C-alpha cells in the first residue's frame, strides 16, 4: 500500500498488534501448568503422511492462556443473530486437507471465521475462510472462478483484489462448510483505525487508500463486469508483499509462547480471540466477495449493509455498479473519522426506510423528480404528488454535505469529491475510472 503504513504510524502502533477483546483483564491469564493437559486439546481433522510433506505439524500449547468468562460474549458471539451450530468449531493446531495447520485466528464475521494456517506442503502461510453452515453467502467461490481469466490482464486494479488459492469442504457437527484458501491479510482498515490514537487516518493516507480501492473497483466494473455490494473499511485489508509471507511466522510463534485468549464453550468448541500484525508496506486488497454479483445487472433484490445502502436500494428499484461508488463516499468519511452520515437503524422496524430517507434528505437535499419516478408507487407512500416529504418521520438536523468543509481541515475539494459519489440518481454518480482523476485525490 503506497502510503498506508508510514514510519509515524509504525511508531504509534508498533510492529505487531494483538487484537484483544474489550473488557478482558490481563489478570485472567492462567499460569502454565494450572490446567490439565487434556483440556482444550487441539485435534487434527486428518492424518498426515510424513512422507508426503516437507514440514511437520507443530503441537500448540493447551494451557497457559487467558480465559474469557462464560457470561462474556467473545468475537462472533457478539452478533445479534449468532448461533453456535452455524460455525465450524475450528481449533488451533487442527489440520485440514493433510496440509493446512491452523496457527491462529485472524478475524470473524456474520458469515465466516478466518484463520491463519501454515501450508505444510508449500511452506507458506495462508488464510482459511470457513463459511457458516447453510450460508447464503455463497457467491465468493463463483466470483473467484469468474474473475480468474481477467487476472492476467495489465489492469493495475487486479493487484488490489485479495488473492484466492484453493477451496474445499469440511463436515462439522452440524453439516458441511465451505473453506476458501486465500492470501493472509495482516489487518483490516477497520481494526487498524480503531488502534490509532486519533481513531482516523490522515487525509493523505485516505487519498492513497481510496486510489487503490478505486483501482480495484474499476477492474471489477470495467473488466470483470462484477459488483461488490459490500464495500466498507472492514473489507479492506492491509496485506504484505509476497516476499514477506514468512513474517506471519511471528503470529504462529506468539501462539506457542503466549497463546491467544479464548473462551471454552464446550468439550469440542472454543472461541479464540483474533490476532493481527501491521505490515511495513504492501498492497491494499479488497476482500469478502460473498455478496458480489456477477454481470452488470441491473439487479432487483436487496443488497448492502443497511447503513451503506444506496438510495436506489432503499427505493427498491434496479441497481448496478453505482452502488459501489456510493460506498466509496461513505468509506471516505469513515476513514477520515467523520461522523456517520447515515445511521439507518435496523431496529426501527417498519419505520426503517422512512428514517433512512429522512437522513438522505438531510444530507443530500430533496430528491429530484427523476429519482421518485423510478418507483412511483413506493415514493407515494413518503412524498406527495408535488415531491414534498410527508413528514412520516421528521428530517433530522444533520448538516448538508457542504458542512464537511473545514472538518478535520478538509478542503472544499473533498466536498466536491463526495458530491460525485453520493447522488440520488445512480447514473449521475461518477465511475471508478472518473474518480481516479478527481482533483482532490490527485492533489
TrEMBL record:
GO biological process terms, semicolon-separated: regulation of mRNA processing; spliceosomal complex assembly
The keyword Transferase belongs to this UniProt entry's keyword annotation: yes
Region: Disordered, residue numbers: 35-58
Tagged with keyword Metal-binding: no
Segment forming the signal sequence: none
Keywords on record: ATP-binding, Kinase, Nucleotide-binding, Serine/threonine-protein kinase, Transferase
Enzyme class, broadest EC rank: transferase
Coiled coil: none
Pfam family, one: Pkinase
PROSITE patterns named among the record's database cross-references: PROTEIN_KINASE_DOM (PS50011)
Biased amino acid composition, Polar residues: 36-54
Catalytic activity as recorded in UniProt: L-threonyl-[protein] + ATP = O-phospho-L-threonyl-[protein] + ADP + H(+); L-seryl-[protein] + ATP = O-phospho-L-seryl-[protein] + ADP + H(+)
InterPro entries with a match to the protein in the record: Kinase-like_dom_sf, Prot_kinase_dom, SRPK
GO function terms (MF aspect): ATP binding; protein serine/threonine kinase activity
Ranges where the Protein kinase domain occurs: 100-441
Enzyme Commission number(s) of this protein: 2.7.11.1
Protein name (record): non-specific serine/threonine protein kinase
Lineage: Eukaryota, Fungi, Dikarya, Ascomycota, Pezizomycotina
Amino acid at each position: 500500500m503506497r502510503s498506508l503504513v508510514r514510519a509515524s504510524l509504525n511508531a504509534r502502533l508498533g510492529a505487531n498488534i494483538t487484537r484483544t477483546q474489550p473488557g478482558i483483564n490481563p489478570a485472567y491469564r492462567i499460569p502454565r501448568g494450572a490446567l490439565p493437559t487434556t483440556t482444550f486439546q487441539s485435534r487434527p481433522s486428518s492424518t498426515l503422511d510424513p512422507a508426503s510433506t516437507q514440514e511437520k505439524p507443530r503441537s500448540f500449547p493447551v494451557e497457559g492462556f487467558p480465559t474469557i468468562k462464560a457470561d462474556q460474549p467473545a468475537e462472533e458471539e457478539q452478533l445479534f443473530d449468532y448461533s453456535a451450530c452455524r460455525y465450524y468449531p475450528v481449533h488451533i493446531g487442527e489440520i485440514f486437507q493433510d496440509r493446512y495447520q491452523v496457527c491462529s485466528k485472524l478475524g470473524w464475521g456474520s458469515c465466516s471465521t478466518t484463520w491463519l494456517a501454515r501450508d505444510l506442503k508449500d511452506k507458506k502461510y495462508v488464510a482459511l475462510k470457513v463459511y457458516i453452515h447453510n450460508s447464503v453467502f455463497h457467491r465468493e467461490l463463483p466470483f473467484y472462478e469468474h474473475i480468474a481469466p481477467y487476472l492476467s490482464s495489465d489492469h493495475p486494479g487486479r493487484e488490489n483484489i485479495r488473492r484466492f488459492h484453493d477451496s474445499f469442504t469440511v463436515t462439522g457437527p452440524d453439516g458441511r462448510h465451505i473453506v476458501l484458501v486465500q492470501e493472509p491479510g495482516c489487518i483490516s482498515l477497520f481494526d487498524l483505525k480503531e488502534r490509532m490514537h486519533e481513531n482516523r487516518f490522515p487525509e493523505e493516507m485516505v487519498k492513497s487508500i481510496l486510489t487503490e480501492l478505486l483501482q480495484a473497483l474499476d477492474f471489477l466494473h470495467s473488466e470483470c463486469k462484477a459488483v461488490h455490494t459490500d464495500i466498507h473499511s472492514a473489507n479492506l485489508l492491509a496485506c504484505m508483499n509476497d516476499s514477506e509471507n514468512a513474517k506471519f511466522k511471528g503470529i504462529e510463534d506468539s501462539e506457542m509462547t503466549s497463546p491467544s485468549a479464548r473462551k471454552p464453550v464446550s468439550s469440542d468448541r472454543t472461541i479464540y480471540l483474533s490476532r493481527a500484525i501491521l505490515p511495513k508496506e504492501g498492497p491494499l486488497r479488497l476482500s469478502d466477495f460473498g455478496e458480489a454479483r456477477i454481470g452488470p445487472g441491473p439487479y432487483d433484490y436487496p443488497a448492502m449493509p443497511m447503513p451503506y445502502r444506496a438510495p436506489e436500494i432503499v427505493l427498491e428499484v434496479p441497481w448496478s455498479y453505482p452502488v459501489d461508488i456510493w460506498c466509496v463516499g461513505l468509506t471516505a468519511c469513515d476513514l477520515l473519522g467523520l461522523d456517520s452520515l447515515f445511521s439507518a437503524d435496523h431496529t426501527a422496524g417498519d419505520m426503517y426506510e422512512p428514517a433512512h430517507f429522512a437522513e438522505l434528505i438531510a444530507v443530500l437535499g430533496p430528491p429530484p423528480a427523476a429519482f421518485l419516478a423510478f418507483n412511483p408507487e413506493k415514493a407515494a407512500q413518503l412524498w406527495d404528488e408535488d415531491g414534498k416529504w410527508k413528514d412520516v418521520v421528521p428530517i433530522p438536523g444533520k448538516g448538508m454535505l457542504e458542512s464537511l468543509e473545514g472538518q478535520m481541515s478538509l478542503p472544499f475539494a473533498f466536498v466536491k469529491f463526495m458530491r460525485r459519489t453520493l447522488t440520488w440518481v445512480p447514473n449521475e454518480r461518477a465511475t471508478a475510472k472518473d474518480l481516479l482523476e478527481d482533483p482532490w485525490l490527485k492533489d
